[in-house]
Automatic annotation (TrEMBL), chain A:
Any GO BP annotation: peptide transport
KW Transferase (keyword) present: no
Membership in a protein family: Belongs to the bacterial solute-binding protein 5 family.
Gene3D superfamilies, per the entry: Dipeptide-binding Protein, Domain 1, Dipeptide-binding Protein, Domain 3, Periplasmic binding protein-like II
Locations listed in the record: Periplasm
Stretches assigned to the Solute-binding protein family domain: 73-405
GO cellular component: ATP-binding cassette (ABC) transporter complex; outer membrane-bounded periplasmic space
Protein known as: Solute-binding component of ABC transporter
Keyword Hydrolase: no
One Pfam family matching this protein: SBP_bac_5
Molecular function as annotated in GO: peptide transmembrane transporter activity
Signal peptide annotation: 1-27
Record keywords, A-Z: Signal
TrEMBL record, chain B:
Source organism of the structure: Oceaniovalibus guishaninsula JLT2003
Keyword Transmembrane helix listed: yes
Membrane-spanning residues: 68-94, 106-127, 133-150, 193-215, 235-257
Gene3D superfamilies in the cross-refs: MetI-like
Protein name (database record): Peptide ABC transporter permease
Superkingdom to which the source organism belongs: Bacteria
Subcellular locations according to the entry: Cell membrane
Membrane topology: Multi-pass membrane protein
PROSITE patterns: ABC_TM1
Length: 497, 272
C-alpha cells in the first residue's frame, strides 16, 4: 500500500508535467542533437574514439581548463594557474564549491586522482601519451594542485582541456562508462542503448545554469536518416552532417541555419608500416601518387574539403601545404612501383570502417589503385567496436581509412605502439623539439619539420581535411560553428524568443 | 492446344531481357562498370551515357547490366540449391510418410517461421558479407517452400493407380520417386522456381542494400540503391535505374511463373 502510494506520489507531478509539455517544451528548452557514432561507453577518459566526448564533454564532464569554441584555452575547474620559469611546475588554483552530480565535492584530491588515473601504468586512457610528461601530482591544500613535469611540454595546458582529461571522482570513476558522474551543468537521465542519451539540467551546478532544460544525443549513423530527422523536426542540430550532397538543400531552406565550419579532421588511409609491401617507402609513395585528391573530394564530399599532404589541418596556424610532394601522377606511380619490385602491382586487404565517408573514399581509392595495377580488396569492419579491435588494438590490417578528429594530433606518429607501426627517429626528434620549444617561432618550425617528414615518409596516405558541415534549427543560438575539439557543447545553446 | 497466356509472353520477354543483359555484360558493356570519371559525376541520362553517370562518374547503364549478372547469378544459384534440396526433402517426406514425414515437415516449418531477411542478416554477420553468404542465406530459406510444394504434389501422385502398379512391379520408393513422381510434379516445381527466383532477386537486393551482399567494386543493384539514397533529390536517375531493374526482373519472373502455371494447370484453364 505504501509502495503504491509512493508510486502515485511520483507519477502525479509527472502527469502534470506531461499535460503541460507542449508549452513547457518551448519555454524550458529541449534540444536533440545528432551524433553519428554511438560510443561504447560514456566516459571520455577511457580508450574509445572521440564519440564519448562528443556526447558528454562540457555537458556532463568538465576539466581543469577547457577549449572554447574558438580553440582558446579557458579556465574551468581551475580559476587560474602559474607556470614556473623552467616550465616544469604547473600550479593550479582550483574553484571552490564545486560538487559532482552525486554530491561528492571537487577538490585537489579529486583532481590529483583524475590526473594520476590518466598517467597510471594500467591507464586505459586513449590519449595517455599526451600526459606522460607529468611526473608527479601534489595537492598541498584542497584548493591547490601542483603538477611536476619530467620535461617541458609546451602543449600540456591545451591537452588538459581535452575530453580525455576531464575531472572524475574516485567513487564513480569505474562506472562512468554507463553512469557518468561529472561536474557539468547537465546530468545523465537515461541512456537508451542504440538510440539516445538524455541529459537534463542539474540544479547543483557551480556556474551559470545552462539555458536548456534537456538535451538529447540521438545516435543516427545513416546520413539520409540524419537529414530526414532534421527535416521532420525530430532533431534540432546536426553539427556534422554525414552527407555533404544534402547540405545544399538545407542551406536553401530558411527553417535551418547552416555553416561550413573549420574542423580538425584529417582523413588518412593508414598503412601497416611493419608489413610488406607497406614497409617499403617507395610503395607508399607510389600509392600516394596514384590518388587524385581533388577528384576524391569532389566525389566523396561534393567538394567540401581541402586536400592535405601531411597530417595537419589547414585550419591550424602551423599548417604548411605539402600536397605538392607526391601529386597525382599514375605514370610515375607505376614506375616507382616497378622500381620497388612490384612491376605487376600487388594485392592487399583494405579494412574499411562502415562509416559513409570511409566506405565512399575506399571505393574511389580502390579504383585509383587499380589504375597502377594494385588490387585492393575491401573488407568492411564494424565501427567502432570491431575496427578498434582489429586495427587499433591488434594492428591486424594492411591498409585502413579513418578520420583523425583530435586537434594537433600529429604526435600520434611518434607514439609507440600506434596502429601505423611507424618508427622514425627524425620524426620523434621533431616532436621532441615541439614539446621543448621556448618560443612560438621555434615551435612552428618544429611542427613544420614534423609535417615535412611525414609528407616524405607517408606512413599513411594523406587525403583530405574535412570541414564541419553544421545544420541546425534557425531558432537556435549558441551552437558551435567550428570544431576546435570534436564536441557537441550544448551549455550555451538556447532557443531565441 | 490451349492458348498461351499473355502474362507468359510478357514475363518471358522481360526475363529474357534481363538474362540477355546479364550475359551480354560478360562480353560487352557501353563503358567499364568500375571505371570512374569524376568529370561526368552525377550527369543525367543522355548527358553521359544512356542512363547517366553515378556519384563517382561510372556509367549507370553499364553497372545495371553488370549488376544483372550479379543479381541473377546469386538468385538463380540460391534458388537452384534451395529448390533441389527442398524438392528432394519434400519428395522424401511424401515417400517416407509417418514419423519421418512429420519430422521433416516440422523442421521445414521451423525454418519457414524465421523472417528470411533477418535470418540472412544474422548469417551475414556470422559468416561475413559476400556472394557465398548471400547464396547460402537465400537458398536456405527456399528449402521449406519447395519442400512443401513438392510434398503436396508428390502425395497426390502417390495416390494414383500407376504408382500401385509400379509398386507391384517391385520398384522401391526411391526409384518410384525418381521415375514416376518427379516427372509428374516437375511442372509445379518449375513454376515455383520462376517465382522464387524473382523473390531471390529481391532478397539479394535487400541484402546488398544493407551491406551484406557482394563487396565493391562488384556491381550490385541493391548497393546502387543504397548509395543513391542521399542523391534522391539531386540525381533521381541513380535511384530509378536500379529500382526499375529490380522491379522489372521480379515482375518478369513472377509473370513468367504465373503464365507457366496457367499453361500447365488444367483446372485453372477450365476455370478461365
Amino acid at each position: 500500500m505504501f509502495a503504491r502510494f509512493r508510486h502515485f506520489a511520483r507519477t502525479l507531478p509527472q502527469a502534470a508535467l506531461l499535460a503541460a509539455l507542449p508549452v513547457a517544451a518551448i519555454a524550458a528548452g529541449e534540444v536533440d542533437f545528432v551524433q553519428s557514432v554511438e560510443p561504447a561507453g560514456l566516459d571520455p577518459t577511457v580508450s574509445s574514439p572521440v564519440a564519448a566526448g562528443q556526447v558528454t564533454w562540457q555537458n556532463l564532464f568538465e576539466g581543469l581548463v577547457a577549449i572554447d569554441r574558438d580553440g582558446r584555452i579557458v579556465p574551468q575547474l581551475a580559476t587560474d594557474w602559474t607556470i614556473s620559469e623552467d616550465r616544469l611546475t604547473y600550479t593550479f588554483n582550483l574553484r571552490p564549491d564545486v560538487t559532482f552530480h552525486n554530491g561528492t565535492p571537487f577538490d585537489s584530491g579529486t583532481a590529483k586522482f583524475s590526473i594520476e588515473r590518466i598517467v597510471a601504468d594500467d591507464s586505459t586512457n586513449g590519449q595517455k601519451a599526451l600526459y606522460t610528461d607529468i611526473a608527479a601530482v601534489e595537492a598541498p591544500d584542497p584548493q591547490t594542485l601542483v603538477l611536476t613535469l619530467s620535461r617541458p611540454s609546451s602543449d600540456l595546458l591545451y591537452w588538459l582541456g581535452f575530453p580525455a582529461a576531464v575531472m572524475v571522482e574516485e567513487g564513480s570513476a569505474d562506472t562512468n562508462g554507463t553512469d557518468p558522474v561529472g561536474t557539468g551543468p547537465f546530468k545523465l537521465d537515461e541512456w537508451r542503448k542504440g538510440d539516445r542519451v538524455i541529459m537534463s539540467a542539474w540544479d547543483g551546478y557551480w556556474g551559470d545554469p545552462a539555458p536548456l532544460d534537456t538535451i538529447t544525443a540521438r545516435f543516427i549513423a545513416d546520413p539520409q536518416a540524419q537529414a530526414a530527422a532534421l527535416q521532420s523536426g525530430q532533431v534540432d542540430i546536426a553539427s556534422e552532417l554525414g552527407a555533404p550532397e544534402l547540405f545544399a538543400q538545407f542551406a536553401e531552406d530558411p527553417k535551418f541555419a547552416t555553416n561550413v565550419g573549420t574542423g580538425e579532421m584529417e582523413v588518412v588511409a593508414g598503412m601497416n608500416n611493419a608489413r610488406a609491401p607497406f614497409d617499403n617507402v617507395r610503395v607508399r609513395r607510389a600509392l600516394m601518387m596514384a590518388i587524385d585528391r581533388d577528384a576524391l573530394i569532389q566525389a566523396v564530399k561534393s567538394g567540401y574539403g581541402t586536400p592535405i599532404g601531411s597530417h595537419f589541418s589547414p585550419a591550424s596556424p602551423y599548417y604548411t601545404d605539402l600536397t605538392g610532394e607526391y601529386p597525382y601522377d599514375p605514370e610515375a606511380a607505376r614506375a616507382l612501383l616497378a622500381e620497388a619490385g612490384y612491376p605487376n602491382g600487388f594485392e592487399f586487404t583494405f579494412k574499411v570502417p562502415n562509416r559513409t565517408y570511409a566506405q565512399r573514399s575506399a571505393e574511389i581509392l580502390q579504383a585509383f589503385f587499380q589504375q597502377i595495377g594494385v588490387t585492393a580488396n575491401i573488407v568492411s569492419s564494424d565501427f567502432p567496436a570491431a575496427w578498434i579491435q582489429e586495427v587499433f588494438t591488434d594492428t591486424d590490417y594492411d591498409m585502413t581509412i579513418i578520420g583523425h578528429a583530435e586537434p594537433l594530433d600529429i604526435g600520434i606518429y611518434a607514439r609507440d605502439p600506434y596502429y601505423f607501426n611507424y618508427d622514425s627517429d627524425a620524426f620523434d626528434a621533431a616532436m621532441q623539439d615541439v614539446a621543448t620549444a621556448t618560443d612560438e617561432a621555434a615551435r612552428k618550425a618544429a611542427y613544420i619539420r614534423a609535417q615535412e617528414i611525414l609528407a616524405d615518409d607517408l606512413p599513411a596516405l594523406f587525403l583530405y581535411s574535412d570541414p564541419k558541415l553544421g545544420v541546425w534549427d534557425a531558432g537556435l543560438e549558441g551552437v558551435w560553428p567550428d570544431g576546435p575539439v570534436p564536441a557537441n557543447d550544448m551549455t550555451e545553446v538556447r532557443w531565441s524568443e | 492446344m490451349r492458348r498461351v497466356p499473355a502474362t507468359l509472353w510478357i514475363g518471358a520477354a522481360l526475363s529474357l531481357l534481363f538474362v540477355g543483359a546479364a550475359l551480354l555484360s560478360r562480353v560487352w558493356t557501353p563503358a567499364d562498370p568500375t571505371g570512374m570519371n569524376i568529370a561526368a559525376r552525377l550527369k543525367g541520362p543522355g548527358e553521359a551515357g544512356l542512363l547517366g553517370a553515378d556519384q563517382i562518374g561510372r556509367d549507370v547503364l553499364s553497372i545495371v547490366m553488370a549488376g544483372a549478372w550479379t543479381s541473377l547469378g546469386i538468385a538463380l544459384t540460391a534458388t537452384a540449391i534451395g529448390g533441389a534440396v527442398g524438392t528432394a526433402t519434400g519428395m522424401a517426406a511424401a515417400a517416407g510418410r509417418g514419423g519421418f514425414e512429420r519430422a521433416v515437415m516440422a523442421a521445414n516449418g521451423v525454418l519457414f517461421a524465421f523472417p528470411p531477411i533477418l535470418s540472412a542478416i544474422l548469417l551475414g554477420a556470422l559468416l561475413g558479407p559476400g556472394a557465398g553468404t548471400a547464396i547460402l542465406a537465400i537458398g536456405l530459406f527456399m528449402v521449406p517452400v519447395f519442400a512443401r510444394i513438392a510434398r503436396g504434389a508428390a502425395l497426390q501422385v502417390w495416390s494414383r493407380d500407376f504408382i500401385k502398379a509400379a509398386r507391384m512391379a517391385g520398384k522401391g520408393p526411391v526409384r518410384i520417386s525418381i521415375e514416376h513422381v518427379l516427372p509428374n510434379i516437375s511442372a509445379q516445381i518449375i513454376v515455383q522456381f520462376a517465382i522464387q527466383t524473382g523473390l531471390a532477386i529481391l532478397a539479394e537486393a535487400g541484402l546488398s542494400f544493407l551491406g551484406m551482399g557482394v563487396a565493391p567494386p562488384n556491381p550490385s543493384w541493391g548497393r546502387m540503391l543504397s548509395e543513391a539514397q542521399t542523391y534522391l533529390s539531386s540525381a533521381p536517375h541513380l535511384v530509378l535505374a536500379p529500382g526499375l531493374a529490380i522491379a522489372g526482373a521480379v515482375l518478369g519472373l513472377n509473370l513468367l511463373g504465373d503464365g507457366l502455371r496457367d499453361l500447365t494447370d488444367p483446372r485453372r484453364g477450365q476455370a478461365a
